[in-house]
Amino acid sequence: MDLGIRGKSALVCAASKGLGRACAFSLAREGANITISARGREALEATAQEIRAATGVEVKTAVGDIATEAGRAAVLALCPHPDILVNNAGGPPPGDFRDWTRDTWIAALDANMLAPIEMIRAAVDGMIERKFGRIVNITSSTVKAPIEILGLSNGARAGLTGFVAGIARKTVAHNVTINNLLPGPFDTDRLRSNFVLLAKNRGVSVDVVRQDRMRQNPSGRLGDPAEFGDACAYLCSAQAGYVTGQNFLIDGGGYPGTF
Ligand code: NAP
Predict the structure, then answer these.
(1) Read out DSSP for 44-110?
(2) Burial class of residue 168 (count of CB atoms within 10 Å of its CB; 0-12, 13-18, 19+)
(3) In 91-205, where does DSSP find H-type helix?
(4) What is the helix (H) or strand (E) element at residue 136, kind and residue range?
(5) Is the CB of 90 under 6 A from ligand 1?
(6) Distance from the CA of 175 to the center of ligand 1, in angstroms?
(7) What's the whole-number average pLDDT of the chain?
(8) Residue of minimum CA distance from atom 48 in ligand 1
(9) Residue 113's closest CA among 160, 168, 77?
(10) pLDDT, tens digit, for every residue of 71-94?
(11) Predicted TM-score (pTM) above 0.90
């Protein structure tokens, strides 16, 4: 299926690695020109080069922290009128809520709630004028099934989800959709570093933790970031103009509810 986004401009935040990178790759394979961001230059440039080599599309890179105004200005300077916007940032650290101060919370809100809202604010009116826009926010399965030690993520992402639920019904009349993608366990650097930490705490090998995590999921495995990227590309397709305000779980069946 041709997703109808050849030549569109796609801005993918936090995309040198993991799920953001996979989204950028899938959009590029569909012919969209890409702008990607991350804080570290080396991995960002390497990813940009891989995408160019694999797909032939134009790829621009902006080094910066998307949780800051300067970081957002840097990506928007390279791609001021995105047709497609994928919002992403690193997840907040786990912990005990008793240890978190107001500053801890503000940092989580900045990265996982306010940054995507600010990016939407910057992009959405141009999309409405041009009668095409696709916005996808990478959130987490914890929006539907909170994990206690990820309280910062549970709270900040729920705030973003509530905000999106309201405006996604206003923009769709202009062919501008806003949806959230909710990853369960995907085989990325972030998950692998969690495994290292858990292995240390439990006094077992990283492989034991990894196998346990795979067994806990009904699919018996971790998600492949490419599966996530292709789902993102579909939500950004011309064909997906009737899909808005949705929260799509991609979690191998990990969420146990009927709805
Ligand atoms: P990852 O493999 O660690 O990759 C994160 C990417 O984002 C890197 O390119 C990183 O590059 C960039 N990044 C992080 N913070 C940034 C910031 N403030 N500004 C700009 N770029 C930033 O992580 P991932 O697994 O793809 O996770 C992506 C998101 O999905 C996270 O919010 C995570 O919590 C959430 N999630 C992941 C899973 C999973 O199983 N993987 C499950 C549920 C939710 P730099 O470090 O160089 O900036």
Answers:
(1) HHHHHHHHHHHH---EEEEES-TTSHHHHHHHHHH-SS-SEEEE--PPPPP--GGG--HHHHHHHHI
(2) buried
(3) 102-109, 115-130, 151-171, 189-202
(4) strand 133-138
(5) yes
(6) 29
(7) 97
(8) 39
(9) 160
(10) 999 999 999 999 999 999 999 999
(11) yes
Distance CA(138)–CA(130), nearest Å, equals: 24
> If you measure from the C-alpha of residue 88 to the centroid of ligand 1, how many angstroms do you get, rounded to a whole number?
7
How does DSSP classify residue 173? Answer: G
Taking Cα atoms as reference points, which of 130, 129, 155, 128 lies closest to residue 140?
A: 155
**DSSP state letter for 259:** -
Tokens linked to 48? 């940009």
pLDDT single digits (tens) 230-259:
999 999 999 999 999 999 999 999 999 998
**Which amino acid is located at 16 in the chain?**
S
For residue 92 and ligand 1, the question of a CB distance below 6 A is answered with no
Could you give phi then psi for residue 228, rounded to 5 degrees?
A: -70, -45
Residue 156 · residue 108 · CB < 8 Å? yes
3-state secondary structure of 184: coil
The span from the CA of 86 to the CA of 245, in Å, is 14
CA of 189 to the centre of ligand 1 (A): 8
Q: Whose CA is nearest to atom 47 of ligand 1?
A: 40
Of 56, 42, 51, nearest in space to 20 by CA: 51
Put residue 18 in one of left, alpha, beta given phi > 0 → left and psi -120 to 50 → alpha. left
Among 164, 220, 161, 213, which residue's Cα sits nearest to residue 192? 213
Contact 83, 135 (CB under 8 A): no
